[in-house]
């Protein structure tokens, strides 16, 4: 059984992603990775999709990873870790290995929602004992802030820039957490580094469950969000408190909201500190803001109903 | 004791894979390979191998999971054809660049468009520069023998590269031939135990696979890979010698047929070489000095040895079962031309494209080509350097 999640206990553990990596100052992703690795009491082997996290943490001859780690390509972190996990099962069955090891894949939203979706879906359906973690910063940040299917409606990106005719992204976000839950995997969850206890508790729970697990974790990117470098945790907290990024888990088909804000803040509180939404505050674009709020309200309502319907 | 059986090429290779008994296999169906992985999956279901199967959702994931499984630390296989190999293309380079000795039978099939499921070499030719070793096989026996030798070559400590074992779709994969199997124990001993260097699963010694290497060292890394390629031929010959002791069957970098004193010759891969040898015999019986060279180790290509074997001819035709679009010649032709270039005295060299999309290659096609070579050898005049044969005008 994993030990308790107390700061006193956690402070004694080794941080498995070393400092000195080349992620931008203020990036949310390495914080997420450190929390995930710190949460585990098991040895971990990780796969990493091509992206910011990958290019910045293993530049030959250096590596920030103190655990076995593999980068293969952009769209195949899930398939890659499924191969590692299968070799583990094979060698374990043959008596060549006896240790209990857990397998985690990390991918950004581009490598997960978009180009890696098929690979992820296949690995989840095959039932590998693995945890896939998407760090969602809402665009292709590594290649220069291009629009992804995780980019929020109305956001300014380099491939859907806000101009005189186009007001940023014209489509809704894909609800990937729901798509993964629809694979009927034993565990799918959303988390945020602002709520570190909730995040780490979910990782621990996921690692105790045998089979495929998925976690979607918001990871602010100050370059792409056009925000202050010291606002990553503040912004991820606002994402949760506005219910833009609700914290919940779906365990064996049962939905549970793990954090309910005492007072649901308006989405503009989350949008305002971010330059990527600046254009939405022009008088003409009030309709876009209203639509964003309406969609959040609808999704939040749906999630609460889903929880209630399973509570009975 | 060898066991004589009548089986298809797919079955023969599936049996070779069973005898090797790998740790992990990734499988995805594609005609005409499907039957091979179906048979191998049957061996798993019957508990005849220790292999763990990954039934992936695409060939891209097949090769991606092979990379993960091989880096994790064990013996890994998959198999494919045509579009499947094309879909793997991106990860083929990662498998070779990461020096992972994955073994992959490729049942050669045409590429789309137009869609065609039959035998030609366009698929493997498209992957010829991916850093994979390629062994090509004329018949089911050679496919079986190459599949077994492939593990020893790929896993050799001087090499550690992935390898494809090619055979013609349907013509070999689905035709029943007489072949000799080795005993299970003989194959097991021949391939031996495989130990991965720096396996991911060695959690006491964490390693990072797949780093970013920019302008500072990328080129040195590529040069090191090129140097490994230069060692492959020697290892292929060593493994062939050991295999001959075991099986009595002799393998080389390529097969030469009545070539030593020949004046005209053919270079041709895989199953059509068999047909061509019959026609060479017929020309020989008429007193015409014809010969043939059939490449086996096609990548890395043994340029020097091949050039030496062909340089004395007066006229030579390379028959390609694939075209290399771009206004150039077929892929094998380009390699043969390169291997002959250093010689002052060399044969007139022509190229025929044949058998695309499974179009039959008949004895009369070989006769047509050899007649033309006789004419070129006599007159010294080449009418056409590249031509499609067996095609409607």
Sheet with the most strands, sense and barrel status of chain B: 6 strands, mixed
Please state the structural category of chain A.
alpha/beta
**Low-pLDDT ranges of chain B:** none
The CATH homology group name of chain A: Thiamin diphosphate (ThDP)-binding fold, Pyr/PP domains
CATH H-level superfamily title of the largest domain in chain B: Thiamin diphosphate (ThDP)-binding fold, Pyr/PP domains
Q: Using the CA coordinates, give the radius of gyration of chain B.
A: 21 Å
Q: Please give the alpha-carbon distance between the first and last residues of chain B.
A: 52 Å
The largest contact between protein chains, plus residue counts on each side, is: A-B, 46 and 42 residues
- CATH class (first level) name of the largest domain in chain B: Alpha Beta
Brief synopsis:
The complex is a heterodimer of chains A (312) and B (393). Chain A is α/β, with parallel strands linked by helices and 312 residues long. Chain A has twelve helices and eight strands.
Fold and architecture overview:
The complex is a heterodimer of chains A (312) and B (393). Chain A has 312 residues and is of the alpha/beta class. Chain A has a single domain (7-311), classed as Rossmann fold, CATH 3.40.50.970. Chain A contains twelve helices and eight strands. In chain A, strands 2-1-3-4-6-5-7-8 form an eight-stranded mixed sheet, with helices on both faces. The model of chain A has no long low-confidence stretch (mean pLDDT 96). Chain B has two domains: 3-247, Rossmann fold, CATH 3.40.50; 254-388, Rossmann fold. Chain B is built from 13 helices and 16 strands. Chain B has helices at residues 9-20, 34-45, 59-73, 82-97, 122-126, 140-155, 184-191, 218-229, 232-247, 272-285, 303-310, 331-340, 363-379, and strands spanning 3-8, 24-27, 52-55, 76-77, 103-108, 133-136, 163-168, 176-181, 208-209, 254-257, 264-268, 290-295, 297-299, 315-320, 348-353, 386-388. Chain B has a six-stranded mixed sheet, with helices on both faces. In chain B, strands 5-7-6-13 form a four-stranded mixed sheet. The longest helix of chain B has 17 residues, at 363-379. The chains are: A alpha/beta (312), B alpha/beta (393). At the A-B interface, strand 1, strand 2, helix 4 and helix 6 of A face strand 3, helix 3, helix 4 and strand 9 of B.
């Amino acid at each position: 059984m994993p030990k308790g999640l107390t700061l006193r206990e956690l402070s004694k553990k080794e941080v498995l992603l070393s400092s000195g990596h080349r992620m931008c100052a203020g990036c949310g992703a390495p914080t997420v990775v450190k929390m995930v690795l710190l949460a585990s009491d098991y040895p971990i082997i990780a796969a990493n999709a091509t992206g910011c996290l990958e290019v910045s943490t293993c530049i030959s001859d250096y590596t920030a990873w103190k655990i076995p780690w593999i980068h293969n390509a952009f769209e195949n972190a899930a398939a890659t870790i499924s191969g590692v996990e299968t070799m583990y099962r094979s060698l374990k069955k043959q008596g060549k290995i006896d240790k209990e090891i857990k397998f985690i894949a990390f991918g950004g939203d581009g490598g997960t929602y978009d180009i890696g979706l098929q690979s992820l879906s296949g690995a989840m359906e095959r039932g590998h004992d693995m945890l896939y973690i998407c760090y969602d910063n809402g665009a292709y940040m590594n290649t220069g802030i291009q629009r992804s299917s995780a980019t929020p409606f109305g956001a300014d990106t380099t491939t859907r820039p806000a101009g005189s005719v186009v007001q940023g992204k014209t489509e809704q976000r894909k609800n990937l957490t729901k798509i993964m839950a629809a694979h009927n995997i034993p565990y799918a969850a959303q988390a945020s580094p602002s709520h570190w206890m909730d995040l780490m508790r979910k990782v621990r729970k996921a690692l105790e469950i045998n089979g495929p697990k998925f976690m979607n974790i918001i990871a602010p990117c100050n370059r792409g969000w056009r925000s202050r470098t010291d606002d990553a945790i503040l912004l991820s907290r606002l994402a949760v408190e506005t219910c833009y990024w609700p914290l919940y888990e779906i365990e064996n088909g049962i939905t549970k909201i793990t954090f309910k804000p005492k007072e649901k803040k308006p989405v503009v509180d989350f949008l305002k500190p971010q330059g990527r939404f600046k254009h939405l505050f022009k008088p003409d674009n009030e309709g876009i803001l209203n639509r964003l709020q309406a969609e959040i309200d609808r999704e939040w309502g749906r999630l609460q109903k889903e929880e209630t319907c399973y509570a009975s | 004791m060898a066991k004589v059986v009548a089986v298809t090429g797919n079955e023969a290779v599936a049996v070779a894979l069973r005898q090797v008994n790998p740790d992990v296999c990734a499988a995805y169906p594609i005609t005409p390979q499907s039957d091979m992985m179906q048979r191998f999956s049957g061996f798993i279901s019957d508990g005849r191998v220790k292999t763990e199967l990954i039934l992936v959702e695409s060939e891209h994931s097949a090769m991606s999971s092979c990379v993960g499984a091989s880096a994790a630390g064990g013996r890994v296989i998959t198999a494919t054809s045509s579009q499947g190999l094309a879909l793997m293309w991106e990860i083929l380079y990662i498998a070779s660049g990461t020096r992972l000795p994955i073994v992959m039978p490729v049942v050669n099939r045409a590429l789309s468009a137009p869609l065609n499921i039959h035998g030609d070499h366009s698929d493997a030719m498209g992957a010829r520069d991916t850093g994979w070793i390629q062994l090509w096989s004329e018949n089911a026996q050679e496919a079986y023998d190459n599949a077994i030798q492939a593990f020893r070559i790929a896993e050799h400590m001087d090499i550690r590269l992935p390898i494809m074992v090619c055979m013609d779709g349907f013509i070999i994969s689905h035709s029943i031939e007489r072949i000799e199997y080795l005993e299970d124990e003989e194959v097991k001993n021949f391939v031996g135990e495989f130990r991965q260097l720096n396996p991911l699963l060695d959690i006491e010694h964490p390693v990072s696979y797949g780093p970013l290497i920019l302008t500072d060292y990328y080129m040195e890394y590529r040069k090191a890979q090129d140097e490994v390629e230069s060692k492959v031929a020697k290892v292929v010959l060593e493994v062939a010698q050991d295999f001959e002791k075991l099986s009595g069957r002799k393998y080389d970098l390529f097969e030469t047929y009545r070539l030593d004193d020949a004046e005209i010759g053919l270079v041709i891969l895989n199953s059509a070489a068999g047909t061509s040898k019959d026609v060479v015999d017929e020309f020989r019986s008429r007193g015409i000095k014809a010969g043939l060279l059939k490449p086996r180790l096609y990548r890395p290509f043994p340029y020097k040895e091949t050039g030496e074997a062909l340089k004395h001819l007066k006229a030579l035709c390379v028959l390609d079962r694939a075209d290399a679009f771009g206004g150039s010649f077929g892929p094998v032709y380009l390699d043969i031309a390169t291997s002959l270039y250093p010689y002052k005295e060399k044969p007139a060299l022509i190229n025929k494209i044949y058998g695309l999309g499974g179009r039959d290659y008949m004895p009369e096609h070989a006769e047509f080509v050899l007649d033309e070579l006789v004419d070129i050898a006599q007159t010294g005049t080449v009418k056409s350097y590249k031509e499609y044969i067996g095609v409607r005008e």
